[in-house]
Every structure is written in structure tokens, then in C-alpha cells.
Amino acid sequence: MNIQSLIQQRNAVVARAESILDAADKDDRELTADEQSRYDEAVSEAERINAQIEAESAKPQQPNFNGGGPVYLNPNPPDEPAGFHADRIAAPIGTRAKLNAYAQSRAGQRQAYTAGMFFRATLAQDPAAYQWCQSNGVPADIMAAMGTSPNTNGGALVPDELSRTIIELMEEYGAFRANADNVPMSSDTLTIPRRTGGLTAYYVGENEEGTESDPTWDNISLVAKKLMCLTRMSSEISEDAIVTLGDKMTQEIALAFSEKEDNVGFLGDGTSTYGGHTGALVKALDGSHDKAKVAAASGHDTLGEIDSDDLVKLMAAIPAYAKRGAKWYCSPTALELVFNAIKVGAGGNTLENLSAMSEPVFLGYPIVVSPVFPDDASATYNGSVMIGFGNLAQAATVATRRDIRVQQSEHRYFELDQIGVKGTMRHSINVHDLGSNTVKSPFAVLVGTT
User: Fold this and answer.
1) Which of 12, 16, 44, 314 pairs with 278 at a CA distance of 20 to 30 A?
2) Is 16 helix (H, G, I), strand (E, B) or coil?
3) How far apart, in Å, are the Cα atoms of 156 and each of 73, 151, 380, 381?
4) pLDDT under 50 in the chain at which residues?
5) Domain residue ranges in the chain
6) CATH topology classification for 168-184+226-450
7) Burial level of 312, CB count in 10 A (0-12/13-18/19+)?
8) Are strands 443-447 and 293-295 parallel, antiparallel or unpaired?
């Protein structure tokens, strides 16, 4: 029996087992004894078929050199049973690994399993996992030297489902990407027109000619830069660890990229460390955007000294058009020493109603907490940024040229029996609207005053 037929059999068995679980979930109950027996029988049958698939996959296959050039594997899955779809990819039934990057559900388990099999195929060069990816439509543009072998020391585009999850996690973890304007890039450079002035209305007398006016525009330029994270992993990946591997690698790559984007978007100083980007907190203090900074009251140069008057002054620095969508930006320590301290001191609040809030809010505006903001309770911040407020989407743009790509090398950490893993993406960050010395900014910062 060929592999495709086995896969179809396995998928049918998995669908049968999942229908048993779905029936119990619908009624919000445990499995009956009969259902448990039929479920266990299906699991055993699925495991038996999986073993057959692995045995067939391990058999030598006919090479396909395509004239000596790189071979692009067919990304289209084989014929599938009616109603079968990628979101019902057969993962080991009963796996209950705790997930962080994916939803804690059977759908989340399947997604994590798909990610794990992708990493196992491309990073550990596992033929069985590679065949599984081919059969389930996962290997988008995976290049190989032979049509039946994993890529050797090459790269692979992350499947759409995995790439989408990584981007979503970046928006969840990263304060900057989650709140700045996000646009795609179709080339290495992107120019976005920006309105700098509008039409002017004039009074005219009867039979008098009207005065013409024109809107004015300039351009925002974004140039894609490559961002990379490099790590290592064990060369031995067991079947039991696949779900955990997919979940962990997805989360780690997303965290690495989102942390870097936060540092670049807020603290970038224009050097190569930050990809040549200048961040919002640095730009606000450069002497050309004075309306984007507000001095705290005299003697308020530590986080614990900020009071409600300082915060109201910061709010007043933002133009009316930026109030919708505005948020506070601060460190975890500032959240406690500034916002929560003011709430408690104001009275009328209890620990119960403060802790019951789904997200921290102050004066009706959400509070975004990021560790890149000043977080030292004992430090003095004379002339330095302490917190921020405003509509970041109107002040900055994150452009993504290419989604996540993962590459591996078995040689870099050969002596440790480990595999080097490299994740890359191409993006650009531009903080383009912080007003000027005379024009208000949609995003402003509070600086300490000794």
C-alpha cells in the first residue's frame, strides 16, 4: 500500500476519533465507557498506520535532480478525503502538552504539531517528517537537492500558518508593532505619501473669482532591513516532543523579533545596532521635536515623584485628532509607582476593582507596559524620558517586506551534536510624525526635571 493511501486511512481514523471527542465536548461531558473504548481503539489504529507510514517513508526513493539544479517540491497535497482540510491535520490524538504560542485546544495542538513537524523536517532532516509535510501541504517552497530528502544546510519558507502565528505573537508580545501602523512591502523600498497640509477656504464676493489652494504632501520612505536570530537545538527530536518543539520554537522566534522591534522602535539611535532606525523616545529629545516632550514639575525626576498634574500636562500635549486611539506607555515599575499609586491615593478604589480590570487603564486610556521604558525605581531621569502618551499608529509605521524564514546548519555546533537554527525576517521601522518645535505631536513623552 502506498503512502498516500495510508495517509488517507490514517486521516479517516483520526476524524472518527475526533468525532467521538466532539460529541462529548458538545454535551460538555466526559466520554462514556463505550465511547472511551471506541476512542482508544481508533488511537491504536492511528498509531499502527503512522508506523506503517514511517516504514514506507524510510524506504529508498528515486532521486530527482532536475538537471542538476535545485528541486522545488510540489506544495500541493495529494488527494484528500472529502471534507478534509489543513486545519484537521492528523496530530497524535490525546496529546495534551501545555501550549503557549497556540491555543490550548485540539486545533491548537494540531497547529503546534504542524509547526513541530515542519521544524523536524527542515532542521533535523527527518525523512518521515519531510514526507508528512509533503503529504499535508505544509512544505511551501522547501528546496532540496533531491526530491525526497530534506534541505541540507539550506533554508525553508515557514508555512503560512506558522508564519501567521509568529506575526500574531509579535503583535501580542511587542508593544511597538502592536500599536504602530502596520503595512506590507512589495519591494525592498516603500514610499508612502503623507498629507502635510490641506485646502484653504476663502470668502468671496458676488461675481469674484475664487482663490485656489492645493493640499500639500511629502513622502515617508521605508527601506527593508534583515533581522536575524540564531540559536541551537538538540539533533535528537522524539515524536513525543514534536508538539512542544513546534510551540516552543514559534514562541521563541516571535519573542526575539518582537523584543528587537520594541528596542528599535522606541530606543533606536540610528546606529547599525538598531538597523539604522531612530526610535520614538530618542527622536522626541533630538531638539527638532520639542512639542513631543513635556517637562515634569520641578523636583520630579524619579518614577515615584510623577503625579497626576504631570500626566495631565502630558495629555494636553497631544492634539485632539490623536486622542482617539491614544494610550499610555510605561515600564512595569512605572505602572505600579505612577498609575496604580495615583489610583490608590485618589480614594474610591479597592484592590478588588483595580485587579478586576482586564487591562490597566488610566483616565480612560489603556496602559501599554513595555520593559524598554525606564524601570529603575531609584534612578533619576533628569532630562530623560520616563513615560509616553499618544497615538503611536499616527506617529510610526512598521513595514514587513518578507515573513519569517528559518534556516539550519548541522555543522556550526557539530561538536555538541546540536543543530544551529537561524530565523530571519525583513522589515522597516519609521517614526515619521512627532510634530516639530511648533507643531504638536500625536505621541509625546514626559521627561524628568531635577
Assistant:
1) 314
2) helix
3) 11, 8, 48, 46
4) 62-96, 140-157, 238, 240
5) 3-157, 168-184+226-450
6) phage-related protein like fold (3.90.1690)
7) exposed
8) parallel
